[in-house]
Amino acid sequence: xxxxxxxxxxxxxxxDDLVKLLNRRAGLARKIAxxxxxxxxxxxxxxxxxxxxxxxxxxxxxxxSSEALKGxxxxxxxxxxxxxxEILVACLGPAGTFSHLxxxxxxxxxxxxxxxxxxxxxxKAVENGKADFGIVPVENTIEGAIGQTMDLLTEGRVNIxxxxxxxxxxxxxxxxxxxxxxxxxxxxxxxLGQCRGWLARNLPDVRIIETSSSSEAAxxxxxxxxxxxxxxxxxxxxxxxxxxxxxxEDRPGNQTRFFVISLDKAPxxxxxxxxxxxSIKDSSGALHRILRPFASKGLNLSKIQSRPTKTxxxxxxxxxxxxxxxxxxxxxxxxxxxxxxxxxxKALGSYPNART
Length: 356
Prior knowledge:
By secondary structure, this protein is α/β, with parallel strands linked by helices. The protein is 42% helix and 25% strand. It has twelve helices and 15 strands. The strands form three sheets. Strands 1, 2, 3, 4, 5 and 11 form a six-stranded mixed β-sheet that branches. A five-stranded mixed β-sheet has the order 8-7-9-6-10. A four-stranded antiparallel β-sheet has the order 13-14-12-15. β1, α4 and β2 form a beta-alpha-beta unit. α1 (2-39) packs across α3, α2 runs antiparallel to α3 (66-84) and α11 (286-296) packs antiparallel against α12.
């Protein structure tokens, strides 16, 4: 017990030092806020936080894992950022959706959240100035691109300010005694698409009712003794629903990519990615010719996605991601040549590459 007491005393002294250091960090954040205000610089700079997280991981010698330390530092960022300014982030609600969880991981518990009823409402919250930032799903490794997000990016006034990748694990959440007692599954369309195989094998006769979000599914299952929801473990904890089956997604490595959107443009970083959208005339070799300028300047294309324009003549929009920033001379040279070959062109934004 004497040894235990001595160790606890050492921990107490370390905790006291941590409090002093964290408040010292917050004091420096206030000074940074004053300088940013003078220069009209943004409070949230994802590239700066990415650099710190990378350095934390490189300097880590354990026993804490790098992921654990990154989680701690994200909350430190959130707390010290709140000293500069209280940030409001719009995302798909209610509480416990994967959009909400991704936003919480990126912006931390010290930020405020506007839980919106749909993806379009997230865009409107940002465009109307209600929220400083929004976070919206753009693609999933199983289900592919989120068409509504792509359409709203094309039509709206926001910029892509950042990106994040979120590991998605689906669970059956229910108050039922066992899986065999479940007669109805409530689920949003995306989790449903990612778990169809498991449902066919394990709950082939259940009724499927689609909901606007995975959190709404949990809320409805909470009121149904023979109902279950497909959702995150965190949603189960929020709504008091035990997990009857875990990680039911059909493929391992299930990830959703999210965009951070804002009326502001992200400050340039050393590792940026840019997204654009355009349409071209339907002619032989048109797409090949329009992509040639990227190759000429050595710009690596990380994504090319087509989407119908919703017109009777079946024209297509092309969404392209490439490495580089809109302010780079090589990027400007390439895009000037691309624009000359397009019927429609829009730069959606440059932002820090979350994969570096």
